[in-house]
Amino acid sequence: MSRYRLGWYELKKSESGDWLVKFPLGDVYSKIIDQAFPKLNHIGWRSSTKSNSYTYIKETNAIEIKQLEKFLDLLKERIVLRLNKNLDCYFKDELDQCFALDYNWEVPDTYTGVGELEYEAKYKKDIESIERLAEILAFFSSEHPNFKEANFITAVPGNPGKSFHLPDFLVKKMGEYMMRDVGLDLRKVKTTPQLKNLSFKDKVEALKDSFSLGENVKNQTVLLIDDLYQSGTTMWTLAKFLKENGAIRVYGLACVKSWRDSDNI
Question: CA 252, CA 223: separation in Å to the nearest integer?
């Protein structure tokens, strides 16, 4: 499985005075917690039943616990995206973390709230939908301990000459909400066909040598923003490209994830 939603967590004080934190999908979320809170003093992640993981936090304070609780609540709202089995022969760990705000559909032909915003923004160029999406993206990026430290927040580039590319507008608006500079001289230098119509091998081949970079990202952290995460081929290709150009960390954030990895439905 390559997409996950945190359904629940426990965070409570034990009889010893240490704080117990426990959640499902431990192999996914324990790494995210450790990256977000590298100084959190805990005994190490232990396996429980049904793939749950837990640990005890020692010598902490109320501020740290509140920050952890706030972050766990943030994770419950969003979808973690990892490399799917169709692409693991082409990529490894190029993306350090990747999230989507939600799926595009709840069930076929029924949009999620975010999915409807993405549709209205992308296909109708609705200004209010663009602004609302950017606001949600900006909030998540500001509240995520790793994402908010990104040196660059930039759009996944579209085909050359594309008249309207939603991620560009989202990133610009995010900069206004976050009150910071955004953008990166990252461009797509060749037009590629719609990736949803290609095999995974052909997706990777189509994106080969597709991007150029006009700025130095050595030892920098880059946050990539896209409207739709489908198979992940574009996001992972870009992350690999940026890492090859010296980026130390690359994160991804998309508005919506398609139910399938191969098409939009």
Answer: 6
Over the stretch 34-86, which tens digit does the pLDDT of each residue have? 999 999 999 999 998 878 999 999 999 999 999 999 999 999 999 999 999 99
Say how far apart CA 184 and CA 170 lie, in whole Å. Answer: 14
**H helices present in 37-98, as ranges:** 62-77
Identity of residue 232: G
Q: What is the spatial distance between Cα 186 and Cα 51, in angstroms, rounded to a whole number? A: 39
SS3 19: strand
Exposure of 186 by Cβ count < 10 A (0-12 exposed, 13-18 middle, 19+ buried)? buried
Widest pairwise Cα distance in the chain: 63
- Structure confidence by residue, pLDDT tens digits, 185-199: 999 999 998 888 889
Write down the H helix ranges in the chain: 26-36, 62-77, 113-123, 127-143, 166-178, 200-207, 233-244
3 state DSSP class of 232:
coil
> How long is the chain?
265
CA atoms lying within 13 Å on the CB side of residue 78: 25
Q: Which domains does the chain show, CATH number per domain?
A: 3-77 (3.30.70), 97-257 (3.40.50)
Angle between helices 62-77 and 26-36 (to 10 degrees): 130
* Single-letter residue type at 91: F
Burial 92-115 (b: 16+ CB within 10 A, else e): eebbbbbbbbbbbbeeeeebbebb
